[in-house]
Write a structure and sequence with these properties.
Blueprint lengths: L5 H7 L5 E10 L2 H5 L8 E20 L4 E12 L11 E5 L1 H9 L5 H14 L4 E5 H6 L4 H9 L11 H6 L3 E7 L11 E4 L11 H4 L19 E6 L4 E13 L2 E8 L28 E2 L9 E4 L8 H4 L9 H4 L1 E6 L4 E15 L14 E12 L4 H55 L6
Antiparallel strand pairs: 1-2, 1-15, 2-3, 3-6, 4-5, 6-7, 8-9, 9-10, 10-13, 11-12, 12-14, 13-14, 14-15
Amino acid sequence: MRKGFPAFEWWADPPQEVLVRMYVFNVTNYDEFMNGSQTKIHLQEVGPYIFREKIEHKDIRLNENGTLTYTTKRRAVFEPDLNTLSLNASLNVPNLALLGMTSYLSGASFFVKFAFNLVVRKMDMQPLVKISVYDYLWNNSNSLLTFASKMVPNMIPVDNLGVLHMIYRTYEDEVTVFIGPNNTKRFFTMDMYNGKNRFGYWSNMTCDSVKLATEGVLYHQEVSKEDKLHFFRKNLCRVTPLYFANETVNLGMSTYRYVLPLDTFHRPKDGSHDCYTLPGDKPHPDGLSEISPCFYDFPMVASLPHFLAVDPAVRNQVDGMQPDEEKHSGYVTIEPNTGLPLESKAGMQCNLVVKNVDGYSPVKSFSNTYIPIFWLQLHQVGIPQYLVSMMYFVVVVLPNVQGVVSALLVVLGTSLLAIGVFRFQRKATKAVYSYISLDTVPSSI
């Protein structure tokens, strides 16, 4: 990892090989639910809408203590050539501002609830709204959200709940990682995050520590099957583990496949402190992980797509979930000598948490439910051909060539030694004969 070398130059200006596939959920029984003839919303997956994630590494500094500090920035760019669906299509979706704010105020006093209900009635806010796909992703606002963000900015710090806008709005952080030959087993794992040894999301250091975490662009070197990798994605709000699954062959190289376990979002059974529920809150069912600290305290939890491996009682609160382990699980394929990921795929679903909102008449039918908002898949589809060629030379060609070259050098060295000994012996023999010849010459001569 030095300027001018291929690994550094590839990392500093990474090729755009990460695709973001966004899936949103459309409410298909909008009229029936609004008129009360049906009490459970039916969701239909719409997508994918495909974006390319642009990654930028800037302000790069090599530190004297064997670390590298840089600022990482990510943004999503729509790819028209890869899409068949229009961003102008209409959706029927939950009113995130109304449901989120009533859930946030679920424990408020009677007077707060009364005043809020008056505001909602005056603005004619409904629990379901019609909106374009583009606005749902990038520009989701309404009069209630604008009003609240101005009146109580400490409680409502944003006036735009576009889901991709919330993910990428503040996706710029300073990261310090270990590099150098003395850090093989912790190569490119975090030492500091925004100048601290913790993320700042959790009060418990076990959940909040940055140690061993990696952003997934590179993993540590000399990866073994016994290693547990630690992947950090900001919108997951914590580090998630990856475990060895099997050996594979990728691009002609021997690789290891690590997977994200299906119980990743399950709470620990031993009673230890978990990283899935905020202190003081009622624990979420298995398969749901709190992410509100990463989204301005907006009540949201993460899960695997379509509630895969989530408590069935949660899945049955809505219609339309179709979990598929093959489609919705995650993995990464790594070349173990260098720790370079050759391919990776991971899915995550964001769900709105609606607490007991019986005190708010427009939304009381949503009380104590988890409503899927969207799910996205991050797919690193490969690495550039020049990097493939370099990797193949380093991990396949070079070891074999090294053995042959070493053998040739041994033969050459032995031959040169033999020639040297032979020449030395010839010179020594000539010297002896010359001495004998001079010693036997007649004195008269």
